[in-house]
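idk why but the lab printer keeps eating my pages so im just putting this in chat instead. protein + zinc ion:
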Amino acid sequence: MWLPGHLAVSLLACTPLVLYYCRSKEDLILTIPYIAFFAVLPDFLHFEDLRTFSHSMIGLTILVLVALVVLHFLFKIRRAQVLIASVAAAAHLAADWLFGHFFPLYPFSNGYESLNSFNTYIDIQAEVVIFSVAFVVFTMMVLSTRTIHRSIELSNSEKWNVVILILPFLGMDLLETVYFVQNMTTVGLGVSRMILFVIFLTTILGSVVLLRSVMSRRR
Ligand SMILES: [Zn+2]
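predcted complex ->
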C-alpha cells in the first residue's frame, strides 16, 4: 500500500485502543504520532533484502522492539503507546498483504504472501475509501476528546517525543509523494489517483500543522 493507505489501516486497527486510553486531546496528540510512525516503520528499510527483513514477522518484531527501547530510553513511554505502536506496525504487514506482499516466515523461508497486487486501479480505489473512513473516525476521535487545561499543554519531553516521530514520517511522506507523482506520469492520471494525490497532500499538511502546533507549545 501507499503511505495514506498504511496510515488509515493502522489508525483503524488502533481505534479501540485509542478510544480506551485517550481521554483528552493531550493523550491524542501523544498517541497519533506513534500510529503514524509505526504505520510506516517497515518502509524505512525499502531496499532489497532489508525490505524482506522489515516485511517479515521476525524482522518487524525486532524493528519495533528496538524503536520502542530507544523511545522509552528517551521519553519513558507509556503502556498505551507500546500497545498502539505494536498494533500500528502489525497493521502495516496486514495492509501490504492486502495490496502488495510480505514475507511471513523470513529468514526461514523467502516465500511471500499476497492477496492483491500493489498500485492497481483496485488498490488506489481501496486506499481512497479506507482513508476516507479513517478520516471520519479520526475527526470523531478529536471531537470526542476533551482538553484538560484551558489550552493543550505539553512538557518539553512530550513535545520532542512528537517531533522525533513525526519528522521521519513527514520525510517518508514527502519522498512517497514525489514517487507517486512520478508514477502518475507513467501510469496515467484518473480520478482515483488524483484523489489519492490530494490525500497525500492532506497527510503532509496534517504533519506540518501538528509539528508547528507542538513546537509552539511550552510548559
Ligand atoms: Zn510496506
